[in-house]
């Protein structure tokens, strides 16, 4: 039997610590549209700076109504992803968002080549992704940080943008 389908696959042996992260922002209120549109140029500028470890960035549209957009990123390893997330400009964005979500919901789901997943959902008015079927728990204690949710050793050179004790005094 012959086929007209050109099938390909990938050899990921050069990426033993590959991390794939999906991120999304969903508009919850009319003000959220301004918040969402304000992030586009910031994210584009950040990606154009080619942070260490970022292998690929792709933009995604999950729905038009309500607006729900996001991205998929491939990182060389968790350490470079975490270093970027805990440095400028992301640290500032995250701190501001945790103070005021600006009428949006935000989520991310992270998948590790070496096994495991972690996710967080902030101000999401409608369940999405893993939140649709997995037991829901508060993002506190060992579940507060991506490092904790991924069950990675707690040692890191980069402090969290917002410590749990600052968010929940």
UniProtKB/TrEMBL annotation:
Residues 150-169 are annotated as: Disordered. Pfam families: Monooxy_af470-like. This is DUF4188 domain-containing protein.
